[in-house]
Design goal:
The complex is a heterodimer of chains A (203) and B (397). Chain A is an all-beta fold. Chain A contains no helices and 16 strands. In chain A, strands 7-8-9-10-15-14-13-12 form an 8-stranded antiparallel beta barrel. A two-stranded antiparallel sheet of chain A has the order 1-2. Chain B has 4 domains: 52 residues; 58 residues, no CATH class; 160 residues, no CATH class; 97 residues, no CATH class. The chains are: A mainly beta (203), B alpha+beta (397). At the A-B interface, β12 of A face β17 of B.
């Protein structure tokens, strides 16, 4: 797997790939999405530059969260009928990966969890009802067909702007759930809301 | 009457109909004129104008339901009306409310006809619980509010309107200010430990594992009638929201379901709110004029109380409360308070005491003996088992 210094195949800007597990890197200058392969960068993805809405985080920024240092590697923006939300991909000092979801100014820290039991199809899930997730009852708070509007930096799964994802949000006894249905897989993330002042960004 | 006289008379009638806002009749009158004089430009032009300005409803059939369409007079979007009794329709594109009477558009209320109730404006900056916020948006909702009446022990439904001000904090966190004609509340989203959405027939609920089930204070079936400012979601005029609220401690807890076109929830959110007074809000936003008004009101009240308490203490009053059973004639309880021991600022509160005799009509007698030129006031509250006041009597002597 590649990691190190590259040049954007589209605009030749320097492109640093930090995480050796990254599958996609998006040029912060021109928005070109590139697949990361052992041979280097493949500019097969789409180009989509994000409007830079103000946030305490930015790609490349470092800081600490609950006693662990982090570096922000990537940002992914989802659009849906009701607006958009951003997901920040963080590499933690203990080697773990963390997603910080930023939606309407609120942050939720998500970590991936394995689905141990099948879920009903996306279309059969109703907002306001209970859903069995890994043997626990989760209350479904929202359901969206979201569009990946674009991203910046590097991400550890293959994604291109324009892809759609079916997303279900839930609450299981105060723990927040995010389930993403893609044509190939279903991803479960479990997390909790975090106060903004628990994310300390180095100046 | 010659054809020309008939046409002139018909045109004069048309003019009056337009002035009266009777567009449907005027539109039909145009046809009558055109039948007499097919080249009459005045009638043809008026007919076109009525049609183009969307002042007339057109009937179309849709799956057995009669649907009328109207063009929004403000933004020209198409409006669908399903009920013949519809009196007004809110445009989902621009938020303008159009009033309809007998198929005629009688008024198109521009969006700025929903002014705020109070002194807050978009762009104002304020501080709540040590955090600074800026007002960035406002949503006006009109609701059928089902509210619990603790005295009558039942829910009453009444029409209600309220504003929800959208606040954004310095750290980009969002909060809301609820405002209606009677009250204010600072509202924050929260993550409940026991999330649920009550059924419309449900009367008790709890959103936290630490809260015993509480009676629902209110249930609102609301629609957005107007919005202004900026939002991180896309509000739509006419969008329907169901909300359920209960009180626990000093805060209210609510669940809000935003409904889709099919009436099913598309998003469920949870909020907790802390009541605020007009003075709190004026202080939070540094509204000096309002603060001055509120302070003057409070000073006037304090002055009145000082005089009242002066009389109160000087009067060496005796307030007697008798609770008796009407038919047996027996006194259930008697309380006597000597008020010359009361401090001028506090008065005296006694009780509560239990009414244990069931199945009997009780009478309550409040009397006092006071000196000349003195004044006293007494009140008795009837509490339910949860210590909530359900009735009160008072007397001034």
């Amino acid at each position: 797997m590649a990691s190190g210094e590259f040049n954007c195949p589209s605009c030749a800007a320097p492109l640093h790939v930090e995480n050796r597990f990254s599958k996609v890197v998006i040029c912060q200058y021109c928005g070109q999405t590139c697949s990361v392969s052992p041979e280097g960068l493949d500019p097969t993805g789409e180009k989509a530059q994000l409007a830079d809405f103000e946030s305490i985080l930015s790609v490349g920024s470092t800081g600490s969260f609950r006693g662990r240092d982090f570096k922000v590697l990537g940002r992914l923006r989802y659009k849906y009928d009701g607006g958009f939300w951003d997901e920040w991909f963080l590499s933690m000092s203990d080697g773990k990966k963390l997603w910080l979801q930023e939606d309407e100014g609120e942050f939720t820290a998500f970590e991936k969890e394995t689905l141990t039991a099948p879920l009903p199809p996306f279309d059969e899930i109703s907002v306001g009802s209970m859903l069995d997730v890994n043997g626990k009852q989760a209350f479904v708070t929202e359901k969206n067909k979201a569009l990946i509007a674009g991203g910046v930096g590097e991400l550890y799964f293959a994604v291109t702007p324009g892809m759609t994802a079916n997303c279900v949000d839930g609450n299981c006894g105060g723990q927040l759930l995010s389930i993403e249905f893609t044509p190939d897989e279903i991803n479960l993330s479990v997390g909790e809301e975090v106060p903004i002042d628990s994310i300390v960004v180095n100046s | 009457m010659s054809d020309k006289q008939q046409v002139d008379a018909a045109l004069s009638k048309l003019k009056k109909l337009v002035e009266q806002g009777k567009y449907r009749e005027a539109w039909m009158g145009c046809d009558e004129v055109l039948a007499l004089d097919s080249g009459n430009e005045v009638a043809a032009q008026l007919k076109r104008e009525i049609e183009e300005r969307g002042l007339l409803m057109k009937q179309t059939a849709s799956k057995g339901f009669s649907v009328s369409t109207l063009t929004c007079p403000r933004c020209s979007a198409s409006l669908s009306i399903h009920s013949a009794e519809a009196e007004s329709i809110t445009c989902s594109s621009c938020g303008a409310v159009t009033n309809i009477e007998d198929g005629n558009v009688i008024a198109s209320v521009q969006a700025n006809m929903f002014p705020p109730y109070s002194f807050i404006s978009l762009g104002d900056e304020g501080e709540f619980f040590g955090k600074k916020y800026q007002v960035i948006g406002r949503v006006r909702c009109r609701a059928d509010l089902k509210e619990w009446d603790s005295e009558d022990k039942r829910y009453y439904t009444e029409p209600w309107t309220y504003d929800e001000w959208v606040l954004v904090g310095e750290s980009k966190e969002y909060a809301y200010l609820y405002e209606d004609s009677e009250s204010w509340a600072f509202v924050e989203p929260f993550t409940p430990s026991k999330p649920n959405l009550p059924k419309p027939t449900q009367t008790r609920m709890s959103l936290e594992t630490g809260h015993p089930e509480q009676r629902l204070d209110e249930f609102a079936d609301a629609r957005i009638s107007y919005f202004e400012g900026e939002f991180t979601w896309t509000p739509k005029a006419g969008e329907r929201i169901h909300s359920f609220e209960y009180t626990y401690g000093h805060q209210s807890f609510s669940v809000e379901a935003r409904l889709g076109d099919d009436g099913k929830p598309v998003e469920v959110e949870f909020f907790k709110s802390t009541p605020q007074s007009r003075l709190d809000i004026a202080r939070a936003f540094g509204k000096q004029q309002i603060l001055k008004e509120e302070q003057e009101k409070q000073e006037a009240k304090a002055e009145a109380k000082k005089w009242a308490n002066g009389f109160f203490a000087a009067g060496a009053l005796l307030l007697v409360l008798l609770v008796g059973s009407l038919f047996s004639g027996s006194v259930v309880a008697e309380y006597s308070f000597s008020f010359n021991q009361a401090t001028p600022d506090e008065g005296v509160i006694r009780g509560p005491f239990a009414l244990t005799k069931t199945g009997a009509v009780h009478t309550l007698e409040l009397s006092t003996s006071i000196r000349d030129n003195s004044w006293s006031w007494g009140a008795v509250e009837l509490l339910d088992e949860q210590q909530t006041p359900i009735s009160a009597v008072e007397g001034e002597f």
